[in-house]
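Reading a protein record of the kind used here takes only a little practice. The record below shows the convention in full:
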Amino acid sequence: MESMSGTDLPKYNEFHWPALLALRSLGGSGSISEIEAAVAEQMGFTEEQQSILHQGGPMTEIGYRLHWARTYLKGMGLATNTERGVWALTLKGREVTEQEIKPLRNEYLTRMRKKREAAHVASNEDGDPDDGELSWQDRLLEALLEMEPDAFERLCRRVLREAGFSRTQVLGKSGDGGLDGVGVYRLSLVSFPVFFQAKRWRNSVGSKEIRDFRGAMAGRGEKGLLITTATFTAEAKAEASRDGAPPVDLVDGATLCDLLADYGIGVNVTERVVREVEINHQELGAI
């Protein structure tokens, strides 16, 4: 069967209102992965649609279009975001109606057109953004995708060690049953083994991979961690936390990038932030 393309998905501007509704359904704020999951459920996207890659990856087409939808919401004064990737509605974003979105979007596009030449940002007549410079996360994910599989597994082991795991080891190539490694995590006075699987993928991880991973753990452990350079479909996230089944924690590509930056693994981070704090009474009133 021929694979689907981005033309099978709604246009960029058709993601603005769903992204705003997703934030409302999340109580007014949410992480990028929470927003994507809420939009996927709201719009009824299939796993195949969620797996469509934007120009070969590593970002999915839905993730890419939602990235721009969030940018537009911010430009329209409807949402704000923090450095940690948490997005929140402004008071205006809580009260705006669907009919008001298009005029606000046109006002934002008019402002952006005036700045286009200086900012090197372009858009076509439909308001669909052209590709600009890759973010550091995208460049890091491309570097991870070029790693050898065993090197990526070792990288994941080091991340777990930095996160507080002990006795972390990469399992052998034969007889590991699909499990890439195991570590021991201590929580207060209790410690327990956590099996992990590292997927150096471009395509989204679906519910089947979660079930296969859980099956590989059967009889060996009750806690799993799946780490990938890609994203997880909404069905995969639901399967990972399904009632009555051993839980599987998920680390997607964006989260992995943040962890590598936090621990200084494979990246050099230079802090150049001078914090100036001013009380935002309008935002506090919108919470």
Q: What stands out?
A: The chain has twelve helices and eight strands. The longest strand covers residues 190-199. The chain has a mean pLDDT of 83.
